[in-house]
């Protein structure tokens, strides 16, 4: 093979045969049935698939997007870190905090978006708050002192700090003024998601009528004990206008719950996300998260130290896709769609998430799934994003 040339072998996602993809200088130059005389990266049990789109990332690899210390360089580093795990597109999340701190985070991301590589990867910002429930339980880990009622004035300040790059925001629909706030924000082209709330069926219907179209990590950000029938869960599962984002680490949603949610919404109305925090990719041990001691357990679960209470996600999205394939009715192709084309369509984005094609820049991942473990583990063998080798 010529210098700058390599062959990648695997089964195309959703296809039955093993193929060789030849890449030269970042471009796909040939696709053919697997040949015996090549020395490929990957193999007959590998899968070739589009890279992923993670709509909710709080941090990873020790890089934290929360607080006053975040910088544009952190966003650039996190873009590269996620790329090595097969994520080509992602949405940085700024969680509830003092307004000045949230503005600083928005400015750092906006500055990072001046970089072409970051701009290719990041279509906008997710504001997870501050307009969330003040009640213990649905508020989750968001600081109570910083949650507040919906305010267009505050939202406009955050949008200005973000240089108009807020893509979606999470809102509690039961708050005073939520419906009118949702309506006005949607007019600005911002997607509204319902989350960290204790809304009634009427609240949820009103929010949907105002333009809300997504549920933020459905099944989480809720009170630990709820009435059997009159609770926020069923109206969101039943409403066909709401797409559900789900954390498929099997800790936030146990396997039977994840399977049921996918059946209720249907795979075409599900977005798989990681909602990972900066401890994702770190070694098991004791850390600090939002000022509290937490333990990252060997199985990838993050809990408040000395308790079983979840304290964020350490999930890599590819693992979530594999988890969903293993424990729900979704096939691998459907699970990939829930982490690529479905969220892209939801946000009105034009990004392609397609299989390799001759003459185009290389945009694909090659991975195997180790099924010998109790929890199937994806093993990344190669990643190309926009013609650049990332892993």
Can you describe this structure in just a few lines?
With 391 residues, the chain is of the alpha/beta class. It has helices at 72-83, 99-112, 116-121, 152-161, 178-187, 201-210, 233-238, 255-265, 317-327, 332-337, 341-346, and strands spanning 5-12, 18-24, 27-33, 41-49, 52-57, 59-60, 63-64, 87-95, 125-128, 166-171, 191-194, 214-215, 243-247, 270-273, 285-289, 292-296, 301-304, 310-313, 364-370, 377-385, 388-389.
Explain how this protein is built.
There is one protein chain. This protein is an alpha/beta fold and about 400 residues long. It has two domains: about 5-50 and about 355-390, Urease, subunit C, domain 1, CATH 2.30.40.10; about 50-345, TIM Barrel (Alpha-Beta Barrel), CATH 3.20.20. Helices cover about 25% and strands about 30% of the residues. The chain is built from eleven helices and 21 strands. It has helices at about 70-85, 100-110, 115-120, 150-160, 180-185, 200-210, 235-240, 255-265, 315-325, 330-335, 340-345; strands at about 5-10, 20-25, 25-35, 40-50, 50-55, 60, 65, 85-95, 125-130, 165-170, 190-195, 215, 245, 270-275, 285-290, 290-295, 300-305, 310-315, 365-370, 375-385, 390. Strands 5-8-9-10-11-12-13-14 form an eight-stranded parallel β-sheet. A seven-stranded mixed β-sheet has the order 3-2-1-4-19-20-21, with helices on one face. Helix 4 links the parallel strand 9 and strand 10. Helix 2 (about 100-110) runs parallel beside helix 4. The longest helix is centred in the first third of the chain and has 14 residues, at about 100-110. It is globular, with a radius of gyration of 21 Å.
């Amino acid at each position: 093979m010529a210098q700058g040339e390599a062959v990648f072998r695997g089964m195309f996602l959703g296809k039955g045969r093993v193929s060789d993809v030849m890449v030269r200088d970042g471009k796909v130059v040939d696709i053919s049935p697997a040949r015996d005389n090549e020395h490929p990266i990957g193999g007959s049990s590998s899968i070739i698939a589009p890279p992923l789109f993670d709509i909710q990332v709080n941090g990873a690899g020790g890089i934290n997007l929360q607080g006053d210390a975040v910088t544009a360089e952190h966003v650039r580093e996190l873009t590269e870190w996620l790329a090595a795990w097969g994520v080509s597109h992602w949405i940085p999340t700024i969680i509830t905090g003092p307004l000045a701190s949230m503005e600083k985070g928005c400015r750092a991301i906006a500055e990072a978006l001046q970089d072409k590589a970051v701009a290719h990867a990041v279509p906008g910002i997710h504001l997870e708050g501050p307009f969330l429930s003040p009640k213990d339980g649905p508020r989750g880990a968001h600081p109570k002192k910083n949650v507040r009622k919906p305010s267009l004035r505050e939202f406009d300040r955050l949008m200005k700090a973000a240089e108009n790059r807020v893509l979606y925001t999470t809102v509690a629909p039961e708050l005073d003024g939520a419906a009118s706030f949702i309506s006005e924000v949607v007019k600005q082209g911002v997607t509204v998601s319902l989350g960290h709330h204790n809304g009634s069926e009427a609240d949820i219907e009103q929010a949907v009528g105002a333009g809300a179209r997504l549920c933020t990590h459905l099944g989480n950000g809720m009170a630990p004990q709820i009435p059997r029938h009159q609770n926020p869960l069923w109206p969101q599962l039943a409403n066909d206008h709401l797409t559900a984002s789900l954390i498929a680490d099997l800790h936030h949603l146990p396997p039977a719950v994840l399977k049921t949610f996918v059946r209720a919404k249907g795979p075409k109305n599900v977005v798989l996300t990681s909602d990972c925090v900066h401890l994702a990719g770190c070694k098991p041990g004791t850390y600090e998260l939002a000022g509290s001691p937490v333990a990252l357990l060997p199985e990838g679960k993050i809990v408040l130290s000395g308790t079983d209470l979840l304290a964020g996600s350490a999930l890599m999205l590819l693992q979530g896709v594999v988890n969903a394939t293993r424990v729900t009715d979704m096939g691998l192709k459907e699970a990939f769609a829930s982490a690529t084309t479905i969220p892209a369509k939801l946000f009105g984005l034009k990004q392609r998430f397609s299989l390799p094609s001759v003459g185009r820049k290389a945009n694909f991942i090659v991975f195997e799934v180790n099924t010998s473990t109790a929890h199937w583990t994806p093993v990344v063998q190669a990643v190309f994003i926009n013609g650049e080798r990332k892993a």
